[in-house]
Specification:
206 residues, alpha+beta, Umud Fragment, subunit A, 8-stranded antiparallel sheet, 4-stranded antiparallel sheet, 2 helices, 17 strands, globular
């Protein structure tokens, strides 16, 4: 039996098959990141104290529907986004990805005064606790910061269909919808579901 190496043509075919399998794996992985789940590193303090600078966030990109891979177009839509959701979105100002909280959803009349939110004329409940100022927005109980007077006032505005008002929890230090306006549903890339890295492994749901 000959122990000579396989012909060059056979080696080329094998290499081509391996490259094809690898390329398919990359496409599947990138498609999953585009449509199902991804992660995001927080670059600013606009959502403090909910999340900190350099926290790594796990994002459910299928929370509001399934999209065509590598596209903002939906194949099918689910419910939401809902008031109180923490979302990642494309910035209307530049090519950055932002982390913000949904404050106003279609059909609601929103007003912001001193960083506090009024929804259809009723202020979102706020109370002082040992760990800070807590706001109840939708089903989300979270801490907010009202430094610098809570940032600019906004509204009242009735949110039109397909549009959302997003704001940071650090209300006095957040460039958000009060500056760049309402965002489209297509601009919202997914819902942040928790912090999985904060200088080390951790899990803190949002």
């Amino acid at each position: 039996m000959s122990n000579s190496p396989p012909p060059v043509r056979s080696r080329v075919r094998r290499l081509a098959r391996e490259l094809l399998v690898f390329a398919a794996f990359v496409v599947v992985l990138m498609s999953a990141r585009s449509t199902l789940a991804d992660h995001y590193r927080v670059p600013t303090g606009s959502m403090q104290p909910t999340v900190a600078i350099d926290d790594h966030i796990l994002v459910n990109k299928a929370a509001y529907g399934l999209r065509v891979p590598f596209s903002s177009r939906y194949l099918t839509r689910f419910g939401g986004p809902a008031a109180g959701d923490v979302v990642v979105l494309d910035s209307p100002d530049d090519d950055k990805v932002l982390l913000k909280r949904v404050v106003g959803i279609p059909g609601t009349r929103i007003e912001v005064r001193g960083g506090r939110v009024w929804i259809d004329g009723v202020q979102a409940p706020i109370e002082h606790r040992a760990d800070g100022l807590h706001e109840l927005l939708g089903g989300a109980d979270h801490v907010v910061r009202l430094t610098r007077g809570g940032g600019p006032d906004w509204g009242p505005v009735t949110i039109p269909g397909g549009r959302y008002l997003v704001m940071g929890d650090n209300r006095g230090d957040s460039r958000d919808g009060r500056f760049f306006g309402l965002v489209t549903r297509e601009a919202i890339l997914g819902r942040a579901i928790g912090v999985f890295w904060r200088g080390g492994p951790v899990w803190d749901g949002l």
